[in-house]
Protein backbone atom coordinates (compact mmCIF):
# COMPACT_ATOMS: atom_id res chain seq x y z
CA UNK A 1 0.00 0.00 0.00
CA UNK A 2 2.81 2.38 0.72
CA UNK A 3 4.31 2.00 -2.75
CA UNK A 4 1.16 1.45 -4.80
CA UNK A 5 -1.28 3.82 -3.10
CA UNK A 6 1.15 6.30 -1.55
CA UNK A 7 0.10 5.61 2.05
CA UNK A 8 2.51 6.87 4.71
CA UNK A 9 2.05 3.69 6.77
CA UNK A 10 0.28 0.35 6.47
CA UNK A 11 0.04 -2.80 8.59
CA UNK A 12 0.19 -6.32 7.20
CA UNK A 13 -1.68 -8.49 9.70
CA UNK A 14 -0.51 -11.67 7.96
CA UNK A 15 3.13 -10.87 8.73
CA UNK A 16 2.53 -11.86 12.38
CA UNK A 17 1.70 -15.42 11.31
CA UNK A 18 -1.39 -15.64 13.50
CA UNK A 19 0.47 -14.59 16.67
CA UNK A 20 -1.80 -12.02 18.34
CA UNK A 21 0.94 -10.58 20.56
CA UNK A 22 3.30 -10.17 17.60
CA UNK A 23 0.55 -8.43 15.64
CA UNK A 24 -0.15 -6.03 18.51
CA UNK A 25 3.55 -5.14 18.69
CA UNK A 26 3.66 -4.62 14.92
CA UNK A 27 0.54 -2.46 14.95
CA UNK A 28 1.81 -0.30 17.80
CA UNK A 29 5.20 0.13 16.13
CA UNK A 30 3.52 1.16 12.86
CA UNK A 31 1.26 3.64 14.63
CA UNK A 32 4.19 5.13 16.54
CA UNK A 33 6.08 5.57 13.27
CA UNK A 34 3.39 8.00 12.15
CA UNK A 35 4.74 10.36 14.79
CA UNK A 36 3.12 13.11 16.78
CA UNK A 37 1.20 14.47 13.80
CA UNK A 38 -1.33 11.65 14.13
CA UNK A 39 -3.34 9.65 11.62
CA UNK A 40 -5.18 11.66 8.95
CA UNK A 41 -7.16 8.85 7.31
CA UNK A 42 -7.88 5.38 8.67
CA UNK A 43 -9.68 2.69 6.66
CA UNK A 44 -10.93 0.02 9.06
CA UNK A 45 -12.60 -3.29 8.38
CA UNK A 46 -11.42 -5.02 11.56
CA UNK A 47 -12.66 -3.11 14.61
CA UNK A 48 -11.70 -4.19 18.12
CA UNK A 49 -8.08 -3.70 19.16
CA UNK A 50 -7.02 -2.21 15.81
CA UNK A 51 -9.73 0.46 15.89
CA UNK A 52 -9.13 1.33 19.55
CA UNK A 53 -5.37 1.70 19.13
CA UNK A 54 -5.77 3.84 16.02
CA UNK A 55 -8.40 6.07 17.65
CA UNK A 56 -5.79 6.97 20.27
CA UNK A 57 -3.57 8.34 17.52
CA UNK A 58 -6.04 10.15 15.26
CA UNK A 59 -5.28 13.70 14.23
CA UNK A 60 -7.90 16.30 15.08
CA UNK A 61 -10.17 16.43 12.05
CA UNK A 62 -8.88 13.07 10.82
CA UNK A 63 -11.22 10.83 8.86
CA UNK A 64 -12.18 7.23 9.58
CA UNK A 65 -13.78 4.89 7.06
CA UNK A 66 -15.57 2.02 8.82
CA UNK A 67 -16.39 -0.76 6.43
CA UNK A 68 -16.68 -3.75 8.76
CA UNK A 69 -15.85 -5.29 12.09
CA UNK A 70 -14.48 -8.73 11.34
CA UNK A 71 -12.91 -9.02 14.80
CA UNK A 72 -16.41 -9.63 16.16
CA UNK A 73 -18.04 -11.65 13.37
CA UNK A 74 -17.47 -15.11 14.84
CA UNK A 75 -17.74 -14.55 18.58
CA UNK A 76 -19.83 -16.96 20.64
CA UNK A 77 -21.73 -14.34 22.62
CA UNK A 78 -21.63 -10.80 21.20
CA UNK A 79 -23.02 -9.40 24.44
CA UNK A 80 -19.91 -10.44 26.33
CA UNK A 81 -17.22 -10.86 23.67
CA UNK A 82 -17.59 -7.66 21.66
CA UNK A 83 -16.66 -4.28 23.00
CA UNK A 84 -17.55 -0.95 21.51
CA UNK A 85 -14.78 1.49 20.66
CA UNK A 86 -13.34 2.78 23.91
CA UNK A 87 -11.04 5.56 22.70
CA UNK A 88 -13.27 8.12 21.04
Report on this model:
Helix content is 30%, strand content 17%. It has 88 residues and is of the alpha+beta class. The protein has a two-stranded parallel sheet with strand order 1-2. The longest helix has 14 residues, at 20-33. The radius of gyration is 13 Å and the shape is globular. The two termini are 26 Å apart. The mean pLDDT is 78.
Quick structural overview:
Helices cover 30% and strands 17% of the residues. By secondary structure, the chain is of the alpha+beta class.
Notable characteristics:
alpha+beta
The number of helical segments is 3
Structural class: alpha+beta
What is the number of E strands?
A: 2
Report the average pLDDT across residues: 78
Give me the Rg, rounded.
Answer: 13 Å
Biggest sheet strand line-up: 1-2
Secondary structure elements and their pairing?
Blueprint: H1 20-33, E1 39-44, H2 48-55, E2 58-66, H3 78-81
Parallel strand pairs: 1-2
Helix pairs in contact: 1-2
Amino acid sequence: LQDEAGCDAAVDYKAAGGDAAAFQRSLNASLKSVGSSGVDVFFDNVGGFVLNETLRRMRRGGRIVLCGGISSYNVDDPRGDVSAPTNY
